[in-house]
TrEMBL record:
Any one cellular-component term (Gene Ontology): plasma membrane
Name this polypeptide is given: Protoheme IX farnesyltransferase
Quaternary structure note: Interacts with CtaA.
Domain of life where this protein originates: Bacteria
Keyword tRNA processing applies: no
Topology versus the membrane: Multi-pass membrane protein
Organism: Yoonia tamlensis
Length: 310
């Protein structure tokens, strides 16, 4: 086949392929938690400035995702869950993903700095760096604690939102960070328990691969127990209140029960019901985080009418 005919048969990426590089489902969670961090802050933000700030945070999250996909293209090809991503499937060239990630990173950080303040821009830049370099290039392939430490990248958005409004950091933003940070390990390990073969095939040192499933089940329980006081403690700050605390109690009991159920299982039970418990706990973990941040948002709305908070 001639070079010309090969070029003619080459797949041409469309906007949907490039958008998929930004991991839109993950971006939606980032945008939501960042928006809550901005809206619950004690300092009001002009709607237009707030819109620009959230846009920058979303673009920054998408940029780090594109850089992650560029770096992880080799292992993404080996996992069923990621084999259809734009780069391993051949829809987007690696160089394109790298260029998009770098360009969007610069755009998001600079615009956020100009529109808001240095701290917010610095936190966004650090988040992109941490996810793309510290987590993707080092932690993910070198240690079973990749998810524990790497979870910080996904925990920064509400802190960035808070910094946009206040220009600073406080116990409230630290606890919002801590909520996501402590939630991340049991959330991802529940996933790893039923996609174990994918990580093993790609050579990723997930805890299930390096320490086994029994150890992973115990760690899910340990981190869920450690998560509870962080989640409940947030309810006693200036952005908490009875509504948040009620939601937190219910969700933490639900999540904790799931973690206990996982810790009591063995491989035979998992194979028998096709990981039904692990899949359900993973789903609960998604509801868990959304419910907590939605409750914070509701508390902020109620305070506008003088009936929220303590």
């Amino acid at each position: 086949m001639s070079d010309i005919s090969m070029q003619d048969s080459r797949y041409e990426a469309n906007m949907g392929d490039y958008f998929a590089l930004l991991k839109p489902r993950v971006m939606s969670l980032v945008v939501f938690t960042a928006l809550v961090g901005l809206l619950v802050a004690p300092v009001p933000v002009h709607p237009f400035i707030g819109f620009v700030a959230i846009l920058c945070i979303a673009v920054g999250a998408g940029a780090s995702a594109a850089l992650n996909m560029w770096w992880d293209a080799d292992i993404d090809r080996l996992m069923k869950r990621t084999a259809t991503r734009p780069i391993p499937s051949g829809r987007v060239e690696p160089g394109e993903a790298l260029g998009i990630g770098m360009a969007l990173s610069g755009f998001a950080v600079v615009l956020l700095w100009l529109a808001t303040n240095f701290l917010a821009a610095f936190l966004l830049a650090f988040t992109i760096f941490f996810y793309a370099v510290v987590y993707s290039m080092y932690l993910k392939r070198s240690t079973p604690h990749n998810i524990v430490i790497g979870g910080a990248a996904g925990a920064f958005p509400p802190m960035i939102g808070w910094a946009v409004a206040t220009g600073g950091v406080s116990i409230e933003s630290i606890l919002m960070f801590g909520l996501i940070f402590m939630w991340t390990p049991p959330h991802f390990w529940a996933l790893a328990l039923f996609v174990k073969s994918d990580y093993g095939r790609a050579g990723v040192p997930m805890l299930t691969e390096t320490h086994g499933r029994d150890a992973t089940r115990r760690q899910v329980l340990i981190y869920t127990i450690a998560l509870v006081p962080v989640a409940l403690g947030l309810g006693f700050t200036s952005i908490g209140g009875p509504v948040y605390l009620a939601v937190a109690v219910v969700m933490n009991l639900w999540f904790l029960k799931g973690a206990i159920d996982i810790s009591r299982r063995d491989d035979a039970a998992c194979e028998a019901d096709k990981h039904k418990v692990e899949i359900n706990v993973f789903k609960v973990s998604l509801y868990y985080l959304f419910a907590h941040f939605l409750a914070l948002l509701l508390e902020a709305a109620l305070r506008q009418y003088g009936i929220g908070g303590w």
